Structure formats: structure tokens, C-alpha cells
Amino acid sequence: MLRIGELTVGYEPDVPVLHTVSMALPPNGVHAIVGPNGAGKTTLLHTIAGHLRPTTGYVMLDGRDITGIRAVRAARAGIALAPQGRRLWSSLTVRDHLTMTRPAATAQEQGRDWSVDDLLDVFPALAARLHHRAHELSGGEQQMLTLARALRLAPRLLLCDEPTEGLAPTVANRIRAVLADLPRHGVTVLVTLPQARAAANLAHTVHVLTAGRLSDPVDPTTTHADDLIRRHLGLTTDDEPSPRTEPRTTVRACHRPPAHG
Ligand SMILES: Nc1ncnc2c1ncn2[C@@H]1O[C@H](COP(=O)(O)OP(=O)(O)OP(=O)(O)O)[C@@H](O)[C@H]1O
């Protein structure tokens, strides 16, 4: 569904943050990018979402060249971003956020059209907070609202930047479970996560981004996946417990994507 080739992106001339990044994501899966702070994860998502223009390279969505298009056009093409830091409108209520946001994608490019009620079913915690302002919500509720608002745009590709950052483990697990279920609704998910273990438990493919360079995709179900991810991250075996020590069934998406897309 998404194909990126030789993408170089920077904020200043001749200072690239991403170096010739290439990636091909099949549709209807959950795909994770892990990497340390400052690796360029946000930069990559913002480039796909049309907030940043690459210096070189291309971004293709379902065979259509969307390189360098503006964010509004990326949304029309079926891409939504749930940004890091949430960026909610603090004085508006949950209801305001969900009713003010409408499907942005054109009919042809649109994914599922999520009604407000659909989204409250996905995030029951928000139903109880419908008339509360964003700044009155807990961190977990704010993150749920960020995701719900992005889904209101009816995307086929949802970009989630560190959606579990700073959340209690149970809330983070709930968020990951929602993401794992989205491919069932025709939404492909590209999510950045700080922890290799969480990414391996959730995603169908994991890419590691370090210092602006992206690894080849790793299939977390293969025998050497943990070692491979760890090696890409430059970790020793003691730095993070094995992904296989956690039950995968809690969040792993049940619909595997086709091998090619
Ligand atoms: N608006 C900006 N102007 C200049 N440099 C920036 C800007 N935003 C990010 N950078 C730099 O680009 C590099 C990559 O940042 P980015 O936020 O993409 O990394 P990240 O992997 O998402 O890290 P984090 O998890 O800390 O958000 C960093 O060196 C950062 O300082």
C-alpha cells in the first residue's frame, strides 16, 4: 500500500535527518518503527503525512505518487496522523473534537467512515467524558481522543507517533489492542514505538530506525527476530527482555497482511 524509496529529509539544507530511507508496507497490517530518541521517527511520519517535503526520494500510496504533497491533500488521499504530543484543542470537549472532524478522504480514497458512536464503542472511556474539555482528560483519554479524531478522517493509512508514550501499562495495552484491530476495518497502521518488545508483540513487520537510517523489515514471528531487532538497535541481550516472554495474543493483530502489496 505504501512504498517509500530513497527518501532523504532534513530541516536545514545539506543536513539530512533521514538518509535514503526505503520501505514497502503491504495493506491491512500493523507496521512498527522502533528507534531511539532523535532517530527520525517523527520526521518520517511527518513526511508521509505531507508536513515535510523530502529533499530526494518518493512516497507512493497504492501506486499514486504523493511525494511532497501538502498535508490537506495527504488527508484527502486517505492518510491520517495521530501526532506525538496529541495536539488536541485544550478548551474543546471530546464531543467537539469528534463532531468537528469529518472524513477528509475523497470518496474514492476513503477508508471506513467512522461515526462518533462507532468511535465511542472503540473507546468506551471517551463516552463517559463526552462533555469534558481535552485538558480535563487523563493522558490515556487524551491519547484515545487523538486516535479517535484521526479515525474520523476515514483514513486507509493511520500514522501513529508514539501513541503509548507516558501511559500506564494497562492503558498502553488497551491502545495497542485497538491498533491491532484496525486492519480488520481496512485501516493499515504505521506506528512508532520506543520499545522493541512492544513493537514485536503488536506488529506484522518491524523496521528499526537509527540515526536516520532504516533497517530492512523484520518479521517478529521468525526465530531470530529478537536478535535482529536488538542488533539493529545496538542493544545487548540484557538491555530488554525477549519479546517472547510476553503473551502475544493480547494485542497481536489477527489478520495478517498479504506478503506483497
Ligand atoms: N523542527 C525541527 N527543526 C530542526 N530539527 C529538528 C526539528 N524536528 C526534529 N529535528 C531534529 O531531527 C532529528 C530527528 O528528530 P525526530 O523528532 O524525527 O526523531 P524521533 O525519532 O521522532 O525522536 P523522539 O522519539 O525523541 O521524538 C533530531 O535530531 C531532531 O533534533
TrEMBL record:
InterPro entries xref list: AAA+_ATPase, ABC_transporter-like_ATP-bd, ABC_transporter-like_CS, BCAA_Transport_ATP-bd_LivF, P-loop_NTPase
Molecular function GO labels: ATP binding
Keyword Isomerase: no
Protein name: ABC transporter ATP-binding protein
Family: Belongs to the ABC transporter superfamily.
Highest rank taxon of the organism: Bacteria
Region annotated Disordered, chain positions: 234-261
Domain (ABC transporter): residue spans on this chain: 2-236
Stored PANTHER family: HIGH-AFFINITY BRANCHED-CHAIN AMINO ACID TRANSPORT ATP-BINDING PROTEIN LIVF (PTHR43820)
Keyword entries, A-Z: Amino-acid transport, ATP-binding, Nucleotide-binding, Transport
